[in-house]
Amino acid sequence: MSTRRLAKSLYRQLLREAEKLPSYNFRLYALRKIRDTFQTNKTINDFELIDREIATAKQSLEMLRRQAIIGHLYSAEKLVIENKKRLKHSDD
Asked: Residues in domain Complex 1 LYR protein (predicted)?
């Protein structure tokens, strides 16, 4: 697989795994960190550095998978911002 396709694949996998995190704050942090890191590393041309960053991304993917599992084992109530219930108005 080409380096570009591998990087895109890792990016999508990382985003998918980050979406599985049950904690709202951790989920948003992970998504923001993934996007920022890939955006920053987009212009790297050194193949050794690219290989190191891909290895780091693979480790991060495994860590996210473990954290998602652990987070679901010890989940808490959703935050107010996460609830999608509609408020009832008194004039309804």
From this structure: 8-63
Domain count of the fold of the chain:
1
Tokens of 65: 């998978």
pTM equals 0.80
pLDDT tens-digit series, residues 15-55:
999 999 998 899 999 999 999 999 999 999 999 999 999 99
**33 in a domain, yes or no?**
yes
Q: Which of 2, 21, 92 is nearest to 63 (CA)?
A: 21
For 49, list phi and psi in degrees, rounded to 5.
-65, -40
Domain that holds residue 34: 11-75
Supply the DSSP symbol for 20: T
Distance CA 35, CA 14 (A): 10
Residue 18 near residue 66 (C-beta atoms within 8 A):
no
Instruction: With beta carbons less than 8 A apart as the criterion, state whether 81 and 28 touch.
Output: no
